[in-house]
Every structure is written in structure tokens, then in C-alpha cells.
Amino acid sequence: MADEPSRVNPDAEAEADQKPIKQRKNGLYAAVSDELAENMKSGWADTELRGLTPVAQASHTAARRAELSARFPGERLVVPAGNLRTRSNDTEYAFRASTEYAYLTGDQTQDGVLVLEPEGAAGHTATLYLLPRSDRENGEFWLDGQGELWAGRRHSLAESEQLLGLPAKDVRKLAGALTEATGQVRVVRGHDAGIEAALTDKVTAERDEELRGFLSEARAVKDDFEIGELQKAVDSTVRGFEDVVKVLDKAQATSERYIEGTFFLRARVEGNDIGYGSICAAGPHATTLHWGRNDGPVRAGDLLLLDAGVETLSLYTADVTRTLPIDGRYTDLQRKVYDAVYEAQEAGIAAVRPGAKFRDFHDAAQRVLAERLVEWGLLAGPVDEALELGLQRRWTLHGTGHMLGMDVHDCAVARREVYADGTLEAGMCLTVEPGLYFQADDLTVPEEYRGIGVRIEDDILVTADGNRNLSAGLPRSSAEVETWMAGLRDA
Ligand code: GLY
Ligand code: MN
Ligand code: MN
After folding, report:
1. What is the residue-wise DSSP string for 256-315?
2. Is domain 224-490 annotated with CATH 3.90.230.10?
3. N or C: which terminal CB in the chain sees fewer CB atoms within 10 Å?
């Protein structure tokens, strides 16, 4: 990497006062001789790919765009993928295309923008705006840090058209064209500042939020492709959990980081990434809902709460939690708490079916947890009154589940009446994840409870006649978990 033109090159600096100077994107300078510049223009083979097979989503994205088009007739709709974000100098964070863009196009490339241009009274023409192959004539391909010589070959516009089933144009002309254009326009905000700047005078926050809300709601019911991808995400996640059980001795010799790294390896080898920061919470860390530092000790006798999910190459994620005895056997008290959460999860899963209210599975799980808390003398009864006042929430802490899809908390900007207050339909996928958490400093519970945290989380598909647990490949009951761990450790 020492000769990267975007870094200071000693040879180049020595020549800088005699030769033309080209400025790099990060503000450093390197000289390029006319001879070298000329040399780099030619001698490259034609690598254009022809006869490409469309990506698997291509047959689904047209229907998704048609729904969007029907909802906003006569308006220009702009959906950006997003841009690279700089971490420092010429180093970038890993790029992940916006969910809205990937959902509507099947594409994941940075700087891409989908534009639905109104055509007549109803209907739109969809065009994908992308960065074309790097120009060899002007040197962009090797002089620019994002040129293909440094960042890797991109698809040509013609290749992208074949892969995605959409006409593709050069995105570098889009901002100017949008500035000039007239008429109603909406943009999905938060991904591409350049595109938003070009539209500043033409959009309103309220109308743009309606667009984002519509796309959030459109993703609630999954098509067959999406259900297949969610199952793939879960299957990889199951393997990732197995990986973790096999290395618990190494984690005990190091820290929770060993667990995080082990799961991440599975996610990167089989998928695109983890779908969210893994929660690898040993001992009392299990009571911290978003424990993400993962730098604590892993000790025999404690529980490990592992909440992790693989994101597939097509960007669908699993979201699974198991709470495991690090040495392979729950203590009596750990088992008592675990079994209560398991019972609550069973009640929650049983309440997932088409026609049920979204809240039903939460209410079912909370009732079981409140009953156990009253039974154990931690919560004053009667149960109905405790539930009415929500007093069990000191230890249950969070909602019992959420929609799952391309985002771990999918459909997050759907309207309340269609999500939290809505009704379940076949094709929806959601988590059922009750928990009990006794903080290490909670003086209202006997000392032996303090520092115990248990969550069990599964990914449940609503089917025509009930539900299917996509993560049934991982054991859930305390006895099954112990048998499964013993089997993996002996293997
Ligand atoms: N992993 C985040 C959640 O369970 O919602
Ligand atoms: Mn979840
Ligand atoms: Mn989770």
C-alpha cells in the first residue's frame, strides 16, 4: 500500500515542483508525469460481462416498486442507497446500503439512487442512477481513492441493467438534474446528503416521512423470497451459536470478546455481516439490555446471554437470544428463572397467529412473568393489579418482540395503528423475546437473584393457520439446552 497515490509518495514529492500536480480526495498531493499518465490510459482488456443472470430479488422488486408507484401517483420519488462515511482520512466505515433502496432494487452499491419518475397521471418509470466504471482516459480509475484500481471493479451500467432489470444511468449527473426539475418530489432522508441538498427547496419533512412510513409498512408482510432469506439468516445464526458453545473454554480464558469474534466469523463467512451489534453478556452483564462492550470475564457458574444474528448477503437478519449456563448446567435458581421465561415465551408464541392483535403475544408473556414474580414473593399481587400498574416491568424491562426483516427492528416507522396497535397477518415475521432481569444493585430482590438476567428470543413467522418458529433449530427448554451443550462439547 506504500505507493497508493492518495498517500504522500516520496518520489512524487521530489518531482512535485517540475511536474503537473494532481490533487487527491484527501488533500494530499502527488506528482504524475505526463508519460505515466499517458501510459496508464491504455493496455487494459475489455472486461465487460454479457449475458448476466438477474439477481434473485429482481423478480420481486418490480412488484414492490409498483406498490410504491400506486401510492404516490404523479410524484417523483427518490430513494438513495447512501454514501461511504469517512472514519479517518481516506479510511471508510464498512458500507451497508439503505434498507429502502436494497428492498426496491436488489442492489447494494454505494452512491446508487433509485428515481421513480412520474409518467402520465398514474404510473412511474423507474431508473437506477449508479456510478459507472471508472474512466481510464482522465485517470480517475487509478488516481482517485474510490477509483476501481483501489476500490475494486464495479459493474458497468449495462451490467447493472442486466442484473437488476432496471435502466441505469450515470449518478454523477443526477443532483444537477434534480435541482433543475420541477414538480412534486419526495426523498427518503438520512442516506445521501448530496441528493438531499439538491432537493432542499422542493421537499418537506412531513411528506418525506410519509414515503419512509409507506416503505416501512410495505415490508411488514414478507414474500417467499424474503421468508427464504430469513430462514437462511436464522440457519447461519444457529451455526454461529453452536460455534460459540464449542469455544466457551477459550472465552473463559479470555473474555466475552472471544464469543463476539467467534459469532462474527460465522456471520462474515456465510453472510454479509452481523445484523446488529452482538450482545455477549456473561454474568451480571446479562441484565444490561444493550450490553455491547463485550469485554467482561466469562466465568463457570454464571449465565451467558447471547443475543446475535447473521445478516444474509441479501441483507435479511436473524435476531436470536439464548441464555446458556457457561459450565453446561443451570443452578437451581438460574433454572427457576429460566423456566419462567421459557413458559412466558411459550405463551407468547402460542398467541402468534393471523388475526391476533400485535399486542397479544406481549400480554400473554407478561402475564406469565407477573404470575411467577408474585409466586416468588417479589411482586405484590394480585397479578391483575400488578399488570394494570405495570409493576412487573421493573424486571421484564422491554416489549416482548418486534417485526424482523432487513432491519432487526423492521418496519420501525410504520404507523401505530398498523404496527403496535395492528393485527398480525400471514407472512409477517416477528421476534418473541421475553426476559427477566435482576440488576446487581436491586435491593428489592433477595441477594441470590441479583445479577441474573435471562432472555429467550426466537424468530416467528406468522403462517395461514398459526406460526412457524424459524429458529427451532436451537433448543429452548432448560433441559434441551443442557443436552445440546453437552453434545457440542463432547463432539
Ligand atoms: N437484538 C436486539 C433485540 O433483540 O431487539
Ligand atoms: Mn429482538
Ligand atoms: Mn435480540
Report:
1. HHHHHHHHHHHHHHHSSEESS--EEEEGGGGGSTT-----S---TTSEEEEEE-EEPTTS
2. yes
3. N
